Amino acid sequence: MGTSPLTFFFFLQCLALSSLLPTILSLDIQIPGIGIGIGIGGSPPPETPPSPPPFVPSPRPFVPSPRPFVPSPRPFVPSPRPFVPSPRPSGPQPCDFDSYFLYRSYFVIQTFKKTVTSDPQGITRSWSGYNICKYLGFYCATPPTYTNTPAVASVDFNGYAIEAPTVERFVSNLTELALFHANSNNFSGIIPYLTFNQYLYELDFSNNKLSGPFPRNVLPLKNLTFIDIRFNMYYGCIPPEVFQLPVVQAIFLNNNKFTGELPSNLGYSPVQYLSLANNMFTGPIPSSIGHAYNLLEVLFLNNKLSGCLPPEVGNLEKLVVFDAGFNMITGPIPLSFGCLKNIEQLNLAHNSLYGKIPEELCKLAYTGQLQNLSLSYNYFDWVGPTCQSLIHKGILDVKKNCIPGCPDQRSAEECSWFKKQPKAYCPADSYKPCWNPGWTGKEQIDTVSESAKGKTPIVDGGRDRDRKSGYTTYATLDGRPAP
Prior knowledge:
Number of helices: 8
Radius of gyration: 55 Å
Number of strands: 24
Distance between the termini: 179 Å
Strand content: 15-25%
Strand order of the largest sheet: 3-4-6-8-10-12-14-16-18-20-22-24
């Protein structure tokens, strides 16, 4: 059956309309306030509605919730109790002493006491309690620049025979100490470093068991006036700084094992009493000794000194004792020795001196203070009338020389042998003797000066063996404490 063109056109329109029908049926037409739904035929499956936008609350100011009132706790008030003082600390306290110096010294002394290994006299038994100034051997005083502040100012252990291995932390820790004397004990070790002992001016370690080289720890003590280390076991050379101590008055180094030459600056020291005896020094006596204008007594006795007697010795107008016996000194006696107007003891025995004994020297027994002139065991070969008078008076000892006509001389063979030996060169004496204008000659030979009357001359070797004689240096030849 044939289809007309109109019918075919209509069919196509219907077909196009049917493809759009679902869209049309689901169309919602929104009119404000009115919703119109247009649908034809059956309802299609419901679609999932769009999710609503998330809820966003409007911002509100933060208002904290009120806290409940809690009252603050009341402070704890303990019930009153009776006052009970704290217990006293054990051991000594600063308030137990008259000064902090003594409080500190107490511990130093007690520590040293524990190191003592022998105390035959029971000295350390008194070192107990807090009254240090009553301890045996300890003496108190107020240091300079302080007022009413006692301290341990002096230690005197002379003759106590205390034995300890060291005093190193004892003396050095008593920093206010001014004098330390420990003659005739049994201390060993070394002298400690004493830099902090600013007041120390007398130091005596004589007759102990100290050893080693010269104790240089004493050299920084610029206030030191007295140093005594005799009768120990020191050895080696003497440092020149010993004779640079600015105010030293006494240096006692005798009876050790010192060696080497004497320092060339020996004479520039202010020392008054110098004892170098009984060591092993060599070489000559330094010519600088002529500058030791304060020197009163000097002992070079019993060493191995050689060379010539320095004529500069004649400059020492204050000199009272000059002892260079038992050495190897040679040459003539310088005429300048006649200038020693205050000399009392002059010992040159047991050397190799020769030539004439100066008359100018012997005249000092009449115009000066000369009491003893010992020239025995040398090789002198002439004496004048003044010296002969001193031989008869027992003031001059010339035995065992080569003097014709004098008793008890060396044999002719011995004197002849010595003359043939080569001699050391001693320069000509350029010092003019100190002639006494009051000297009138032989009539004064039998007159002894007033100052020499009543004094017993010391002869036979020329060494003063009497501790009561009053000569400081000769007293040092005894190891015991000085009288």
